[in-house]
Design brief:
- The protein is an alpha/beta fold and about 210 residues long.
- It folds into two domains: about 1-135, Rossmann fold; about 145-205, Winged helix-like DNA-binding domain superfamily/Winged helix DNA-binding domain (Arc Repressor Mutant, subunit A).
- Helix content is about 50%, strand content about 15%.
- It is built from ten helices and five strands, in the order βαβαβαβαβαααααα.
- The protein has helices at about 10-20, 35-40, 60-70, 85-95, 110-120, 125-135, 150-160, 165-175, 175-190, 195-205, and strands at about 1-5, 25-35, 50-55, 80, 100-105.
- Strands 2-1-3-4-5 form a five-stranded parallel sheet, with helices on both faces.
- The longest helix has 15 residues, at about 175-190.
- The chain is globular, with a radius of gyration of 18 Å.
Amino acid sequence: MIRVFIVDDHAVVRQGLRRILEESEGIEVAGEAGDGAEALSKIHKLKWDVMLLDISMPGKGGSDTLKQIIDGNKDARVLIMSMYAEDQYAVRLMKAGASGYLTKDVAPEQLVEAIREVADGRKYISPTLAELLLQECSTDLSKPLHTILSDREFEVLKLIGAGNTVTGIAVILSLSVKTISTYRAHILAKMKLRNNAELTRYVIQNGLLK
């Protein structure tokens, strides 16, 4: 029996995933968590084989949660589920230790297949992700500027590009205004841009809001 731990901040999503998994032979739901902090508090209390982890959650997001889990157990099997397309997060999360990456519009059959593969100790790599990983391994040095950002910096960049203020982003991510301002300063320095207008233009031109 494959025991799955579901981590997502939307109750309706957790219910939908639970329904799919409970109808699948050989799979059961070991537990649920509504955010990264709750997930980390439960990982040693529950018996689970595969974690389904949402990438975008308030407070401790999926990226930070994944890193902490992998730091504690490099063999942990964490399958990322996200509303974001593979070209935005998948490669960096696979490099951080994720066992696979799925978008939330995936068919139930593909979700179950991915869980079985990850439970067997294999990586789940979609054709799109395979292509991205090949590109990552190429010697082409003309990578987009945003690939040099940390996961949190990239998240802040996207929120700036969506028109959010520093204060608004602080509320969304449950962080202080000072912390968000620091992330913004790092982003501007790394990308050699001058202000929010240039950041927003970059986000739109590179299709990062899709």
